[in-house]
Metalloregulator ArsR/SmtB family transcription factor (Paractinoplanes bogorensis), 105 residues
Amino acid sequence: MDALAAIAEPTRRRIVDALRLRACTVTELVSMLGMSQPAVSKHLRVLREAGVVTAQTRAQQRVYRLEPGPFRELDAWLAPYRRMWTHHLAELERHLDRTTTLEES
């Protein structure tokens, strides 16, 4: 599964949002998200397989953190769409400015 498919699921996006703030253990994520441990672990496995998160073992716990690579790839994929919408919105702004100017005349 690729990163986009992995984060398309709303619960996994909530996990990614939580990990954006800081690295967390499964127990911390369970508490933050109000979900069961098996459910959080299932979603973390999908995110890990997609390369979105990595886990580091500390004592008896696994600490999960985001991996930047997949997000850079998503950002690069989104760049042309961002440019397209920026262009369209700039055109709309120019049109509205012209309309306002004509109405004021």
The chain has five helices and three strands. Residues 68-104 form the longest helix (37 residues).
